[in-house]
Structures are given as structure tokens and as C-alpha cells.
Design a protein that fits this description.
Elements lengths: L1 H17 L9 H21 L11
């Protein structure tokens, strides 16, 4: 799930940097950097947690 969010952020950064389709953001480069940063954070979090398992339940 978080990998999908990260990849979506990279796609959003590309769209904002390349086209700024809504002509709404005054600085598409800054917006693209924000989305790239958030996408990188999502992918890094997913990579760190790739082998995470919940602790066993002890009874």
C-alpha cells in the first residue's frame, strides 16, 4: 500500500513539474520537490518495513 502511495507521489511530481495542468500552483518546481520528497519517504518507509512481522502473541 505504501509503495503505491510513493509511486503515486513520483507521478504527481512529474505531472506538476512537466505541465502544471491546473495552472494553479505558482511554483510547480517547489510543488514537485515536495511530492518527490514525500514519495521518497514513502518508499524508504516501505523498504525499512519490508520484513516486519507483528510480535507473537504469548498466552
Amino acid at each position: 500500500m505504501i509503495v503505491g502511495i510513493g509511486l503515486s507521489c513520483f507521478a504527481m511530481a512529474f505531472v506538476l513539474f512537466a505541465a502544471d495542468p491546473l495552472d494553479f500552483h505558482p511554483d510547480p518546481f517547489l510543488q514537485a520537490l515536495v511530492w518527490l520528497g514525500f514519495g521518497a519517504w514513502c518508499l524508504a518507509t516501505a523498504w525499512r518495513r519490508r520484513n516486519w512481522r507483528p510480535p507473537p502473541v504469548e498466552r
